[in-house]
Amino acid sequence: MPQIIRDPSFDSTLDLLREGYPFLYSRSQRFDSDIFQIRLMGMKAICLHGAEAAELFYDPKKFIRTGAIPRRVQTTLMGLHAIQTRDNGEHRCRKEMFMSLMTPGSRHRLMGLLAEQWEAYSRKWEHQDRVVLFEEAQEILTRAACAWANVPLQEEEVSLRARQFGKMIDGFGGVGLRHGRSKLARINNERWMRGIIRDIRSGKLPVQEGTAAHTVAWHREPDGKLFDVQMAAIELINAIRPIVAIATYITFAALALHEFPPYRQQLRNPHEDYAELFVQEVRRYFPFTPFVGAIVREDFTWHGFEFPKGTMVLLDVYGTDRDERQWEDPEVFWPERFRHWNENPYNFIPQGGGEYLTGHRCAGEWITIEAMKQAVGFLNDGITYDVPPQDLNYDLARMPTLPRSGFVMTNVRRTGKSA
Ligand code: HEM
Question: What phi and psi values does residue 350 have, to the nearest 5 degrees?
Fold first, then answer.
């Protein structure tokens, strides 16, 4: 029976914090293997890389998620006991709830709300000396996401809620102060959302059927019971917060437009949906999700390697999206590569892979792509702007990362073309 290669380091937790995104990828290259073993926080973890391994990882018969996501990530990014940590019928029931919010009509409504916000914000930008795109995009997305979800948002709380969502996302790879800030943001945001759920259930806050607020507040678990108020608050946040996270990809898309200007003209080609190729390449090329984790459900072997029940397994998301067997010159930004992509659900996994309903693949992938296309179109044609000297570098050791300046624009002018 072949042995899984072991990283010689006694424990790799500090190396992971030091190296960030490339941590798993560089080891799979060093060991020249799609599978190797490390110790993280004292626990053995089998690490997987590449499309074939992703196909294994996304087989729900082989893995569970209960116990896979550290408490520190749950108390910041997604909330305790949220859908990401559920299995079997309970997961399926919640996933159906989330996917019911992703109909073409519902997505179209969100894009309309977003378009209104891009218009309104760009009008404001014309009177500003400088605009930090990342921060503005977080507000645009917060306003549109809350309106879409039917969650009321007072004008004076927009900035507060946008920052709270932002901090929850920013905290997932953080330690110390960053982790503390993120946790506090979640505590306050959950308190706000519990109030919303209570008001909906008491009839004080009327919400429209089919919206996220209505759907989550009245969702029944497989045992026929409503979520408790706290769980409903967490899952309603899980429908809004990740929309705000799209600000990161929008900022990277702006960076790509700036660094690779020839694509600006390509994006205007009326004969091809070039924006689709462009945003797919942004999701592949720029780092966001480093890896995802699961736990072995029952003992099994794969290519002769033993996977004992209860073992932690990590799938290298960042490295799989730059695997040379699939992606020619992976370190080159080249949207045209997606003309020939075979749409395999395992070789391009920026938001997870596999099936939507039976697995844990991101429920919001279509929204993400559509919102990015809209933003790219608006940045390219809806406004003109200058990009003054600034620090546009992003640190791969920081998870999540972002161009350091947040992408500053000056002299913003509207062209008259709408989003
Ligand atoms: C799950 C990434 C946007 C809702 C996930 C996963 C990743 C991810 C990596 C986990 C996959 C796994 O565990 O195997 C992202 C990124 C986004 C994004 C990078 C864009 C910036 C969205 C949006 C929504 C959303 C817009 C919804 C409005 C969810 C939900 C899950 C999920 C509900 C849990 C799925 C499950 O456990 O079955 N996302 N996501 N995400 N995402 Fe997203």
Answer: -60, -25
**Amino acid at site 206:** P
Measured from the CB, is residue 251 less than 6 Å from ligand 1?
Answer: no
Residue count of the chain, please give it: 419
Q: Measured between alpha carbons, how far is 183 from 270 in angstroms, rounded to an integer?
A: 46
Give me the domain span that covers residue 11: 5-414
Give domain status of residue 419, yes or no: no
Rounded Cα distance, 187 and 148, in Å: 23
Q: Which atom of ligand 1 is nearest to the CA of 248?
A: 21
Q: What b/e sequence results for 278-290 when a residue is b if at least 16 CB atoms lie within 10 Å of its CB, and e otherwise?
A: bbbbbbbbbbbbb
3-state DSSP assignment of residue 68: coil
The model's pLDDT over 81-135, given as tens digits with 9 standing for 90+, comes to 999 999 999 999 999 999 999 999 999 999 999 999 999 999 999 999 999 999 9
Q: What is the ipTM of this complex?
A: 0.99
| CATH number of the domain to which 130 belongs | 1.10.630.10
252 lines ligand 1 (CB under 6 A): no
Give how many domains the chain has, as a whole number.
1
Handedness of CA 333, 338, 341, 347 (dihedral sign): positive
Going by alpha carbons, the residue nearest to atom 1 of ligand 1 is: 362
SS (H, E, C) 233-269: HHHHHHHHHHHHHHHHHHHHHHHHHHHCCHHHHHCCC
